[in-house]
Task: structure prediction
Amino acid sequence: MKNPGKSLRKLYAAALANLTYDGKSVTVYDALPIETTPDRYVYINAMTYAQVGNNNAFIFDGSVTLDIVVKQYKKIDYDTVDGIGQEVLNTLLPYPYSQQEDTDFQFLNPTVSSVNYLVEPDGSYFILRKIIILSQSIIQK
Result:
């Protein structure tokens, strides 16, 4: 049995590498950024996967948590975070099999498991986050 985690992270990071919103590039990180970040970005917050079935085939139920972060001044406006979220979903759903380049795993089309919003005050700013959890099956080749 092989570990699908690295391949899953690479798949999502590659799929979202050219993400744009409102004519501007949106930076995508494959993990929580620890550097100075732009006012809007996306990162892969978490991943989970568990083997299902028996040992006749290695099949996993997996999920990826995407965190869309937008820094706003003085007021909360959901338009930008929702717009970036829509671009993320337009890019990933349905994810075409022809874009898969992984030799160890086949990733089946993801589905949206949940969407949550968080607002975090930060001095005179607000950090607005839209958290999208996508689930999918993963088959080891």
